[in-house]
Design brief:
Helix content is 13%, strand content 49%. The chain is mostly beta strands. It has a single domain, classed as Lipovitellin-phosvitin complex, beta-sheet shell regions, CATH 2.30.230. Strands 1, 2, 3, 4, 5, 6, 7, 8, 9, 10, 11 and 12 form a twelve-stranded antiparallel beta sheet that branches. A hairpin with a 2-residue loop joins strand 3 and strand 4.
Length: 292
């Protein structure tokens, strides 16, 4: 996640009511050999100093679950990749790096991600190729974001917090923790997670959940001004995630992730001010998960 590179998770505390059997709970129990194809469509708009850049990334991959003595292994096979900048298709080195690879996740019996393989070499190459912001030609290059970085954190400290919690609408978790801010230091944040409503997923029972995380960047902005000789006037960010989840398996059927960030700064030499804003929306669609 883009903001997860800026705002990584650490300590959490949560409060909730005990579950009852009649209400049901979230249980990680996908059938052996469950297979689905996930399509990510990420649309981003970056504006800096009056220059606007739009990027669209479309990435399709097949996921296959296999039961193991300790939990599950999940094989990820990339199927296709498309990258569009300002409405023009652009060749992306990402596809050349991943097209002939298979990635593997190892999950324990409750669904926590313990190990990953296949990501390190690709992520290192993507990090080397990342393009920096330019004043008149801003670039976010979301296609260059590491594939493995943050994956364990996002799963274990996001989706898996629902494990063994009630799946009834109204169930809510509140988390106060510290995230990694844009300067690299940890800042305070507040996260709210809630089961919004029940919903049918074909013949299956699903629920819609909503996740909102807002970091307090004031402390991080102050330190940037003190230590990096900048005049950062305002810095704001937020992350919102809506998921449609099958509680009996904890498999997602749909996800929509929205990142927002805004920075307002004066140049260190007082030659002027610059503003930057980013809005990125990622939608994940899934073929109907099925056990084989």
């Amino acid at each position: 996640m883009v903001l997860r590179h800026l705002l990584a998770a650490a300590l959490f505390c949560l409060a909730n009511f005990p579950a009852t059997a009649s209400e049901g709970v979230f249980t990680f129990q996908p059938p052996d050999r469950t297979r689905f194809v996930r399509t990510l469509t990420r649309t981003a708009r970056l504006e800096r100093e009056g220059v606007v850049r739009t990027e669209v990334t479309i990435y399709k991959a097949r996921f296959t679950f296999h039961e193991t003595p300790s939990g599950y292994s999940v094989e990820i096979t990339p199927l296709s990749f498309r990258y569009v900048v300002n409405d023009d298709d652009v060749d992306s080195p990402v596809w050349d790096l991943i097209r002939d690879r298979k990635f593997l996740l190892k999950l324990n019996s409750v669904g926590n991600l313990n190990e990953m393989s296949g990501f390190d070499e690709v992520d290192a190459a993507l990090s080397r190729q990342r393009v920096a912001f330019a004043a008149r030609s801003p670039s976010i290059h979301l296609d260059h974001l590491p594939l493995g970085g943050g994956r364990r954190r996002n799963r274990n400290e996001g989706l898996m917090l629902w494990h063994e919690q009630r799946s009834a609408p109204g169930t809510k978790l509140e988390l106060d923790r510290r995230e990694r801010g844009f300067t690299g230091e940890r800042v305070r944040s507040h996260t709210s997670m809630q089961v919004v409503r029940a919903e049918k997923c074909g013949t299956r029972r699903c629920v819609v959940t909503r996740y909102t995380m807002t970091p307090d960047l004031a402390e991080s902005a102050r330190r940037a001004n003190e230590n990096r000789n900048v005049d950062l006037i305002d810095a704001r960010a937020s992350e919102e995630l809506e998921q449609t989840i099958e509680p009996s398996t904890m498999l997602p059927h749909y996800e929509k992730l929205t990142w927002k960030a805004r920075f307002d700064s004066a140049d260190a030499d007082d030659t002027g001010r610059w503003r930057a804003s980013l809005v990125a929306v990622s939608e994940f669609t899934y073929e109907q998960p099925s056990g084989k």
